[in-house]
């Protein structure tokens, strides 16, 4: 059942689900304290609710403590220093493999490369070095980036390879950074390998815009949260609510493919994310990316 606001409601078995859309729906979904993502996942992953029963497990196994537990574990080790070199080794191997093949499938090769790097960084190098063992390991449920990162990278490569204007602009940007940091006859490859994280994050605005545009087009999940409070959650000033115990859902395409926000929304156009256009600022949380509001994935 849909309403004039664009929000809608239905039942999934015995569970009430309220679909949200538009600026007020987005803001409610991503910013309400009472809409819980972990509880929402239990609608389709019943086993996930077991993790919420903190009395069954040690307290540090509860999802609310996961971030601090992982961070503490990492900081207690010396392995962080080896991660860049580990990732570089597998990236180099992938590039060599691609160069040897000439024609390649970016989705297959980049997914494989990222999976290897992720497993090696986590300290399970024996899996990373074996293609057979690696392909038997299912990481998607625990590490969403295992799927998102190669997908976004692949679409960025495809976008650039089919758009001469942006390919030329990005090549120019990369060449300028290489020239800026080149010393003692270093090759372009050597310069890029030596760049700091700060340089990568702040001196490639065009490449960054390309990645954001690929995320807009490729990362389009339908996410669920649950009203864990004992009262209605108001959907802005629409007069509509999400009842206690009901689920709320949001389809990222509501914003990402909205022509009022992004003209010609199906077209890959990184210029949308440059300061002179900034189309994502037209509405609240118009770019959801990997999430927004109170809980989102790190950039």
UniProtKB/TrEMBL annotation:
Q: Which Gene3D superfamilies match?
A: Cytochrome P450
Q: Which family does it belong to?
A: Belongs to the cytochrome P450 family.
**How is this protein named in the record?**
Cytochrome P450
Listed SUPFAM superfamilies: Cytochrome P450
Report which superkingdom the organism of origin falls in.
Eukaryota
UniProtKB keywords: Heme, Iron, Metal-binding, Monooxygenase, Oxidoreductase
Query: Which residues are recorded as binding heme?
Result: 297
Single GO molecular-function term? steroid hydroxylase activity
Q: Which Pfam families match?
A: p450
Q: Which organism is it from?
A: Aspergillus tubingensis
Q: Which cofactor does it need?
A: heme
